[in-house]
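Example record for the data management plan.
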Amino acid sequence: MTEITGFTPLYERILLLPDEAEHQTETGIILPLESRKRPNTGKVIEIGHMVGNGKEAPIKVGDHVLYLRYSGFDIVIGGVMYHLIMANDLVGIIDKTVNTFELKEYA
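Corresponding structural encoding:
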């Protein structure tokens, strides 16, 4: 259980703090709440005890990760919205010290 949230994910679940959703487009148009894309990057807050299947987990608390956009669900703890996903919904770890990461999506 973390001191931050008082919540411990079970089994292969991971608790994330999602990054903030984009508020405006590249051209400066401000997006209403309904039009904003759900973020799919975030910071790992807590890891379930079975992530890694008994071996050292490939991720650790504090890592910045990319995950499937519509995986898991949101939970509010202490007025802060977190996202709870399964470990197999992770796509990769983002190393912000090496390069700037930009995700481009095409329709």
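Summary line stored alongside the record: Residues 13-94 form a domain with the 10 Kd Chaperonin, Protein Cpn10; Chain O fold (CATH 2.30.33.40).
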